[in-house]
Amino acid sequence: MSISKAAISKISQDNIEKRLQIERLIEATRIVASSAGSDVVKGLTQTPKSLPPWYFYDDRGSELFEQICELPEYYLTRTETSILQQCAGEIAKITGACELVELGSGSSTKTRILLNAYQQLGYPLRYLPIDVSAGILESSARQLLADYPSLQVHALAGTYELALAQLLPRQLSSRMLCFIGSTLGNLQPQQCDVFFSQITDALQVGEYFLLGIDLQKPKHIVEPAYNDCLGVTAAFNLNMLDHLNRRFEGNFDTTQFEHWAFYHETEQQIEMHLRSLRSQTVQLKSLNLTVNFAADETILTEVSRKFDLNTIQQQLTAWGLAPRHVWTDPNQWFGLLLCQLQAI
Ligand code: AVJ
C-alpha cells in the first residue's frame, strides 16, 4: 500500500509543528508594562523630531526591506553574502556545534549559508531567530523547517533588547550570537556600548559573536544605496508612518511627506529623514498625541553608521569580545568579524 501525497504532507506538517516554537515578546510586554509607544511619544515631542528605526519592520516593511536587499544600488547584502559563502565552513569549524541566535533575522536568507556549513559537518541544527516582525519570523521559520529536516527553531518576536534579556537556556553546549547585515549601524556610539554589554551578558566565556558591518567608503557608492531609482527605499521609509497609523490609530498622510537620505561624510553615516511637505497636524489617538509639523520640518528615521575595521576591532576587544577572525570582500566594502568572549 502506498501512502498518498496528502498523507505525506500531513506527516511533515506535524513534524514541522513539533520543531517550531514562536513566542511574541512585544505583545507580552505591552500588557505587562503598557510602555508601548513611549519611544514614539519621546521622539515626536523633541526637537529635532526622530523615530526609532525598528518601527520600519512591520510585516510590510520587512517585505520592502527584502526588496531593498535585491536592488543593484544596495551593495550591502550581496557583498556580505559573498563573504559568508567564502568563510561559513571555516566559521563552523572554529565554533564547533552550537546553537545560532540571530538578532534581526528577517527572511533568514543569509543564515542558510551558515546552516548549510553546520549541516555539512554533521552538527545538530538549532536556531533562535529574533525579529520584530512576527509575520516574517513565522513564514521564514516554516520554510527553514521544511528545508532542513533535523532543524529545531525557537523564534522570538520582539526587539533585541527584550529578546536578549529573555533568551532561553541552552539546549546545545554552546551558542553563537549572530548580528549580521550591519544593523549595528543603527546604534549611536553610546547605544552601541549598552548593546555590547548586553551581548557579553548573553554569552558564556568561550562562546561566539558573529558581527557583520558596512565599512566606510566614498559617498558616491554609499548614497545611491539609500536613494534607489525604483523608489523602494522611499516606500520603506514612508511605510513607517503607515505602521504608526495602524499601531497607534494615527492619521499620518504619507502623500504629505517625502523621503530624504544623504551621506554625512564627516560622521561617516547615512541619515534618513521624512520631510513634511507642508505645515500639518497629525494625531496618534491611542497615544493621546498631537504633533505639529512646519513645512519642510523633518523626522530622523534612521542613522546608518559606516565603520572602520580597526576601530571596531579595538572596541570589541575592550568589551572582551576579541575578534578571532576577520573577513572582508576584495573591495573592503563590508566586514565580517567572528569574536569570542574572553574570561576577564
Ligand atoms: C538593516 C540597518 C542595515 O542601514 O542599510 C536599508 C536598513 N535602511 N535601506 C541599512 C536600511 C534603508 C539597513 N540596515
Automatic annotation (TrEMBL):
Q: Which GO terms describe its molecular function?
A: L-histidine N(alpha)-methyltransferase activity
List the Pfam families hit by this protein, alphabetically. Methyltransf_33 (PF10017)
The domain of life is Bacteria
GO biological-process terms attached to the record: methylation
Keywords on this record? Methyltransferase, Transferase
For this protein, what is the EC number? Answer: 2.1.1.44
Recorded hits in InterPro entries, A to Z, give: EgtD (IPR035094), EgtD_Methyltrsf_superfamily (IPR051128), MeTrfase_dom (IPR019257), MeTrfase_EgtD-like (IPR017804), SAM-dependent_MTases_sf (IPR029063)
Give every Histidine-specific methyltransferase SAM-dependent domain span.
38-340
Enzyme type, top EC level? transferase
NCBIfam families, from UniProt?
A: egtD_ergothio (TIGR03438)
Q: What is this protein identified as? A: L-histidine N(Alpha)-methyltransferase
What is the species of this protein? Atlanticothrix silvestris CENA357
